[in-house]
Amino acid sequence: MSLCPVLIAGEWRAAKNPVGSFAAEDPAQKKMLPETYPVSGAEDAEAALVAGSAAALELAKASPDVIARFLELCAEGIEARANDLIRVAASETGLPAEPRLKSVELPRTTNQLRQAAKGARERSWCRATIDTKLNLRSRLAPLGGPVAVLGPNNFPYAFNGVAGGDFAAAVAAGNPVIAKANPGHPGTTRLLAEVAIEALAGSGLPRATLQLIYHLPEELGHVLVAHPLLGATAFTGSRRAGLALKESADRAGKPIYLEMSSVNPVFFLPGALRERGPALAAELSSSCSLGAGQFCTNPGIGAVVAGPESEVLIAELARAFAGGTPGVLLGRNVPKAIARSLEVLVAHGAGILCGGKEVDGSGYRFESTLLRVSGDAFVAHPGPLQTEAFGPVHLVVVARDAAQLVAIAALFEGNLTGSIYAHSGTDDDALYTELEPVLRPRVGRLLNDKMPTGVAVSAAMSHGGPYPATGHPGFTSVGIPASLTRFARLESYDAVRPARLPAELRDANPTGSMWRLIDGVWSERDVVAAG
Amino acid sequence: MSLCPVLIAGEWRAAKNPVGSFAAEDPAQKKMLPETYPVSGAEDAEAALVAGSAAALELAKASPDVIARFLELCAEGIEARANDLIRVAASETGLPAEPRLKSVELPRTTNQLRQAAKGARERSWCRATIDTKLNLRSRLAPLGGPVAVLGPNNFPYAFNGVAGGDFAAAVAAGNPVIAKANPGHPGTTRLLAEVAIEALAGSGLPRATLQLIYHLPEELGHVLVAHPLLGATAFTGSRRAGLALKESADRAGKPIYLEMSSVNPVFFLPGALRERGPALAAELSSSCSLGAGQFCTNPGIGAVVAGPESEVLIAELARAFAGGTPGVLLGRNVPKAIARSLEVLVAHGAGILCGGKEVDGSGYRFESTLLRVSGDAFVAHPGPLQTEAFGPVHLVVVARDAAQLVAIAALFEGNLTGSIYAHSGTDDDALYTELEPVLRPRVGRLLNDKMPTGVAVSAAMSHGGPYPATGHPGFTSVGIPASLTRFARLESYDAVRPARLPAELRDANPTGSMWRLIDGVWSERDVVAAG
Asked: I need a labelling partner for B308 at 20 to 30 A (CA). Which of A158, B240, B281, B379 fits?
């Protein structure tokens, strides 16, 4: 049995003393795929850290134009190998080639890479700040060590440890990446790494700018995120795994950025339901079924006030849920995890209106499942009833009255998003005014009359939120320039001689158009020396 | 024995079931001061959290102008009560009334408050970002819970939990503060709180915007920083206490900003020493003696290359150290801690050139102490030889050659600052080029030909640095607007109706001059609706 090579110190080579091996499974066929990948041991991890640390020093000296070119070459390489990437990702994840992989996620990924390239080239992300009177200058700078990126199972390109959003942000900010593949799609990750290695050669960046390990035993994951040579970690995945890694990273004083679970509550105010209830049911059920519900922004909980308009919504939802064909799930563990979550929900008072069982057949599937629970039960068991069921599952909470709806909002943990649907006129304004201040501090992104499943790659995006949706409420993993600032140190230069300053802090604007805060004024101009 | 009241829920009231009491000592007289303060128990902490949490909701709705006015009234109140403040702080800290307290620290503190007020009023700190095409808008917003501020012993005004830099930043960002006094200067803190309570009344902010507890048992400190109602913590103090609190806050997912120990290495390159060695010795010894060495940016370690010019520096330093009068230290524990640190340094090869003993007499004093150690010893024991001796102590590391000087730089832990003195011409350029990339990622602020002890309140300041100087390398505790961003969440508004947006994100610029990033362009203008 020959194991696929890992990418370490710029070379594809056999894993050294791997501690195991694994293969991916085609979840649509329930069939193991032929390639076998190593579970790396301490030697691979250590070698990647040492090489990444050396690359960090080189990368800190690299021109932002070269870094940008690398990211653009990654995007071009992905386009050139799109057919392979779609074939392999479809087989490893069960996600449909069209439209999802080819027309949605792949272009999103190349768009992210190109936006990151633009951000790197513009340099404005580093918030160069110049105090001419004191000759004190600061900017955000690369971390000085590689960034470990651990991607999730649900986006084989867009959040992949190689070529995904965290990768693009870390590299654009001038840091090498040590990617740990998600074991659900190692072949996709390998292909992306092949693209990246070619792009490194084409751009002239050090080859150890990217290193790839397919899998690590849990204890080595902890060593990695806490290692003295590491710059920071970006993790997208389950709360259990994320919090465990956080503890190790925190203890070592290493930044770790986590995007964990979120149930993304959607509040339907009574006026909106009276006005357009059936349309909202269609909108919600369609959002719930995107990616078979396996989105971090999947709307997992809806909240309504008891009344006939809410019964209409629920009935329409049940009809839509029962009518749809459940999508293939990402792997064999997903339906098991859904079933476990449903047990928790049901044990705390939720009733299943439709669905509730794994679907037998050729692929891993779970019936689209709609649950209902009273506001009283939610108030009594807010923790268990916020259990995430990662898949096509939605729980409607029916508050006894408007006051209880607000009380329910106050019980939500930190979430990535929260939506409020309101009457298009003023019917719901009074309740909105009560609800919004309670919901707002609990979510990263607040939406009006909109489902949360679209995560635009925009400077104004917050794909983050309060704990435990993430580990720090001040950052976002999507959106440039903000996502880059996670992978940076604030460094200040005090009376440093002009020729010794980094280009971003010299008097001359290095690009002619970089935004800098000069004596309190954002400007694209050169510094005019103070009197 | 009557205990001074605590300030909770807007009222000065007796501590409820305090777990103990304490008094401050006049370190210049070695005499206990008459006032007795409570060590608060769980009831006070819980009451402060509940009231602070309610105040957070109110404060989030307050106008930035009102918040700014409060901070300005604090500054005015401090000036009005300057005589009391100086008398009490001098008695509690032993710091000289002139110039330190009256002409340096008090004006610095009022300046910080006024800069924070200006920052709050301008609103640019919140990085409002608007994507007109997607109608997606984001800003940094208050945390939704109070900020616990734990101040250090060495700056009774400027870093005080009440009216100091962290307080000003937290309030300017829209958060209430729960201050825990430093037990070294409870009376000063109480006076500052009296000023602040008057300022709250004058500005109309909720009275629970500030609450004051004098002391907490260690276990309750852990409860406080991890409490669900808390927004975040700002701590300045020892590494031991800071890391212990960090562990509790991290585990609860609560942001904590720490400014801990730092030895602030100063590298004297050979050309600089040949050119102006005696002047540099004078500059260094004067910087070392500021505040009797009790500055977080005190230069604790100097590094030189072996050679006659370095011997001149060391000889001049020894003369200056031996000639000065040691200042009064902040308290009885300080000389003990210095002695313990010296033991560690000496045990690992450092030799004491002058000083080394506590001074007997009326006040707590320690001889200005100069130590010397070989580069070889430093390379062998880099950890112990970086032990901070908080006081008038300086260790010169003599590298065998230039290469070892660079190797020494590579062994430094994260520090607030690092300085390099070089020949005014080009004599040291080659070595600077070797040294800088190694030192740069290890320090928050890099200085050229300058001592680190001045920490300007400037937008371009980084008073932060890599772990373990702080807990996160991306933030600064001094400098506006950056220091405010620690106490904020990133929140995004997705398709939210215009009238429901916070003022900072509406089309109209709320001040006419607030900086916002609109479609990638920093602008002070209104949003022009996209086509």
From this structure: B379
